Each structure stands twice: as structure tokens, then as C-alpha cells.
């Protein structure tokens, strides 16, 4: 029996009408972004709905996430669905970083394309080419045109791994009618936590279930074997620790802890924005610390090695038995702790973790992560945390093994 599809309400109808004007500006905007290095030269036309890969035979399950972290989090779910079916998978995202890093970490039977801009003509090209059997959206950002176009073709829509804090809900509450209209088109909606489920329901979502974070179940990041061997040789037996996805506040905390010490571990700093390498080196020098930069082909022979490269986090996590999670000493409020967990690198973090409060609560409950202050940071970096790292890895493995039921529910809709 065909599922009845609701007619667009006033807000959605107005949006869809306005979206027809997007092609008037899209090529100009994309060309400007291309000149600034924000688009891939050989792939920017994907955002106009022009596919750069052939469609595989058989069922195609289309999954979408916006940015790098959300896109990488889909890999465990894809693995779980692949284990239960012969489907092929298409992942779309919107940022250049997500495309490049996912490209080095693609699951089996998976390919990546950019999501077209939210104009009817572009979406029609995209859907005509890929003809997905299922559409899976992740986190909280929905593109109304894409949702409406997908639903109009009878393709089942699902939302997984949704996360919405109070501030995000308040911003969306002004458009409750639009969100209720969109959520009515979804067959299955899952949230990371109870608070998100309540926020989604307040916006009109029905039947929301809480299944936890997909980030906890993501497979380990990959690393090039030749690069891994070369860097391991370059470290020459030095004990290395990692500051991952760092921001200025994290770096200042680290430099303050390291400055008075005469015996320091080698610290690798992987900035969230690799373009900040020179800035970090200058700030380290102000604190009396010496550094080298990977982007300049410099090796790890000083106090700090600034690994200001892109897409190599899997390399650093394999080489460093201890990871200090960035974003936890400032207003960023934390980054994903599950990437070190999956590779057995012990997790340290600062006091500010609101963005991943539930994730850190799970790790703390298993004695699998350690909060540190500036005053205790150096000692924590020196200590052996192998038992704690093993507990974090076991928790990550268990989360990955638990994806089977969600994968089965999604496949049942195809």
C-alpha cells in the first residue's frame, strides 16, 4: 500500500517556490568558492547535480551528513548494513574536508558525492542519476528541498543520530511549522539522547527513539602503511603524545603546562585548522618551546611537532598512546573522543566538554577517560594509561557491535 504524502504547508511551499531562484546565483558563488580553495576543482559541479561517478547496479542506499565528523560517523552504520545486505552505498556531504577525509576512509561498496544545492533542477538531476532506495539523514540539518523532492518520488526518508541542544532547538522553534512539515515525511527518526528526542518532538517529530551516538560506533580511522612506518622510524623511540583537533585555548593550556618542565614527552599538535601551523609555532616560541612543522617537511626533533597536515589523524592516533582531546579548554566545548578510543589511545580532556557531554559521561562511567587541569596536565601526559585506553577501546567495539538492530530497521524500509 502506497504511503500518503502530505502536501507542502505554507512555509515549505514558500521555500520551494523561492528555491527555484537558486540557479541564478549558484554558478557564480561556486566559482568564487573554487577560487578560494573551498571547492574541489574536479568536483564542484556535483553541487549542480552533475554526478562524477556512475551509478552501481542494484539497490543504492543514500546517506547524508553535513561536515567531517558527522560524515565519518556514518561508517559504522554502513558497515552494519553491508553485513546484512548486498546494497551499495552513496554518502553525500557539503564540505571539502568531509570529501577528502572520507575518501581515505571509505567503507566497502561506498562512494562519495557532494549534495546538490537545494534547487529543484539540481535535485532532479541527482535523483534521476542515483535512484536511491532509501535516504538516511544524519544529525540535525535538513535541506527542505531535498527532503521534499525525495519524498515526492516515494523514496523512504529516515533521520538518524540526531543531536539538538537547547540553543539549536530555540533557533528552530521559530520555524516549527516548517520542521513539522519535514518530519512528517520521515519513516524513522532516532536521536542520540533524551534531550534531543524531546526537542525533536517539540518541533513535531513523531515516534522518536533514542539509540545513542554513531560516533561511538565508528570504525578506526585508516592510515597509510608506508607513512606509518616512516613516521614510526622518525620518532626513533621517543614517547609521543597527541593534542588532537586543537584550538588556541588548548595550545595555551599545553604550553603553560610544558614550559617549566625540564623533562617533556614529544607532543604532536594536530590543529583543527591545519592552516594555523605557523601561528602555533610562533605562540610556542613565546612560551620558550621549540617546534617543527610537518607541512614544511620538518621532522620530530624538537619539543613539539606541529602535524599541520590534512587527513592523517589515523596516523597520529596509532603512534601516540595518549591523546589530549582538543576544544576542551575553551568555548568550543570539545571534539569527538571516540576516534582515539577506537585506536586504543588513552583519552585526556580539559574541563569544557558540553558538545560531547553524553559521550564523555559514557567514557567516565567506564573509567575510560580522564579529566585534567593545566596543573595536572604534564603529569597526566607522562603517565601510563594503557588500562584506561583498553577500556575505551572495548567500549567503542561494543558500540560498533550494537548497530545491528538499527541497520536492520533501515534495511526493512528499502
Strand tally: 14
Poorly predicted runs are none
Q: Give the proportion of residues in helices.
A: 40-55%
* CATH level-4 homologous superfamily of the largest domain: 3-Deoxy-D-manno-octulosonic-acid transferase, N-terminal domain
Largest sheet: 7 strands, parallel
Placed side by side, the strands forming the largest sheet appear as 3-2-1-4-5-6-7
Count of structural domains: 2
Spatial extent as radius of gyration? 22 Å
The CATH class name of the largest domain reads: Alpha Beta
User: What is the level-2 CATH architecture name of the largest domain?
Assistant: 3-Layer(aba) Sandwich
**What do we call the CATH topology of the largest domain?**
Rossmann fold
Q: Would you mind describing this structure in some detail?
A:
This protein has 414 residues and is of the alpha/beta class. The protein has two domains: 10-23 and 39-219, Rossmann fold, CATH 3.40.50; 225-399, 3-Layer(aba) Sandwich (Rossmann fold), CATH 3.40.50. Helix content is 43%, strand content 15%. The protein contains 18 helices and 14 strands. It has helices spanning 10-18, 22-35, 68-84, 96-103, 120-130, 144-152, 166-173, 176-183, 194-202, 225-235, 248-258, 277-286, 313-319, 338-342, 357-365, 374-382, 386-401, 404-411; strands at residues 60-64, 88-93, 110-114, 134-138, 157-162, 186-191, 209-210, 240-246, 266-271, 291-293, 304-306, 322-325, 346-349, 370-371. The strands form two sheets. The protein has a seven-stranded parallel β-sheet with strand order 3-2-1-4-5-6-7, sandwiched between helices. Strands 10-11-9-8-12-13-14 form a seven-stranded parallel β-sheet, sandwiched between helices. Strand 8, helix 11 (248-258) and strand 9 form a beta-alpha-beta unit. Helix 3 (68-84) packs across helix 18 and helix 11 packs across helix 16. The longest helix is centred in the first third of the chain and has 17 residues, at 68-84. The mean pLDDT is 95.
Amino acid at each position: 500500500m502506497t504511503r500518503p504524502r502530505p502536501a507542502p504547508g505554507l512555509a515549505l511551499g514558500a521555500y520551494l517556490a523561492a528555491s527555484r531562484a537558486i540557479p541564478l546565483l549558484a554558478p557564480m558563488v561556486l566559482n568564487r568558492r573554487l577560487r578560494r580553495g573551498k571547492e574541489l576543482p574536479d568536483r564542484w559541479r556535483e553541487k549542480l547535480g552533475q554526478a562524477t561517478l556512475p551509478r552501481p547496479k542494484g539497490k543504492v542506499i543514500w546517506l547524508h551528513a553535513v561536515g567531517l565528523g558527522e560524515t565519518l560517523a556514518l561508517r559504522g552504520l554502513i558497515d552494519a548494513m553491508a553485513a546484512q545486505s548486498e546494497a551499495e552505498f552513496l554518502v553525500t556531504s557539503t564540505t571539502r574536508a568531509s570529501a577528502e577525509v572520507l575518501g581515505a576512509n571509505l567503507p566497502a561498496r561506498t562512494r562519495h558525492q557532494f549534495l546538490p544545492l537545494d534547487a529543484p533542477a539540481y535535485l532532479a538531476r541527482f535523483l534521476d542519476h542515483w535512484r536511491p532506495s532509501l535516504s538516511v539523514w544524519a544529525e540535525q540539518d535538513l535541506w527542505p528541498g531535498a527532503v521534499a523532492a525525495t519524498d515526492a518520488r516515494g523514496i523512504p526518508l529516515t533521520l538518524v543520530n540526531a543531536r539538538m541542544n537547547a540553543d539549536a532547538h530555540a533557533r528552530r522553534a521559530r520555524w516549527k511549522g516548517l520542521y513539522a512539515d519535514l518530519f512528517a515525511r520521515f519513516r524513522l527518526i532516532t536521536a542520540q539522547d533524551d534531550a534531543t528526542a524531546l526537542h525533536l518532538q517539540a518541533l513535531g517529530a513523531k515516534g522518536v527513539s533514542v539509540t545513542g551516538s554513531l560516533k561511538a560506533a565508528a570504525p578506526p580511522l585508516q592510515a597509510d602503511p608506508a607513512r606509518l612506518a616512516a613516521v614510526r622510524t622518525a620518532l626513533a623511540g621517543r614517547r609521543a603524545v597527541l593534542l588532537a583537533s586543537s584550538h588556541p585555548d588548548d595550545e595555551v593550556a599545553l604550553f603553560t603546562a610544558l614550559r617549566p618542565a625540564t623533562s617533556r614527552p614529544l607532543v604532536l599538535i594536530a590543529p583543527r585548522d591545519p592552516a594555523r601551523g605557523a601561528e602555533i609555532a610562533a605562540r610556542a616560541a613565546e612560551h620558550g618551546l621549540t617546534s617543527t612543522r610537518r607541512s614544511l617537511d620538518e621532522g620530530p626533533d624538537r619539543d613539539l611537532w606541529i602535524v599541520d597536515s590534512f587527513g592523517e589523524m589515523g596516523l597520529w592516533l596509532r603512534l601516540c598512546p595518549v591523546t589530549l582531546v582538543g576544544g576542551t579548554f575553551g568555548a568550543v566545548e570539545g571534539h569527538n573522543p571516540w576516534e582515539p578510543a577506537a585506536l586504543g589511545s588513552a583519552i585526556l580532556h580539559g574541563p569544557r566538554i558540553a558538545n560531547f557531554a553524553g559521550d564523555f559521561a559514557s567514557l567516565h562511567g567506564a573509567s575510560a577517560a580522564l579529566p585534567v587541569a593545566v596543573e595536572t596536565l604534564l603529569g597526566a601526559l607522562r603517565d601510563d594509561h594503557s588500562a584506561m585506553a583498553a577500556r575505551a577501546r572495548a567500549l567503542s567495539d561494543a558500540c560498533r557491535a550494537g548497530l545491528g538492530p538499527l541497520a536492520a530497521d533501515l534495511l526493512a524500509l528499502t
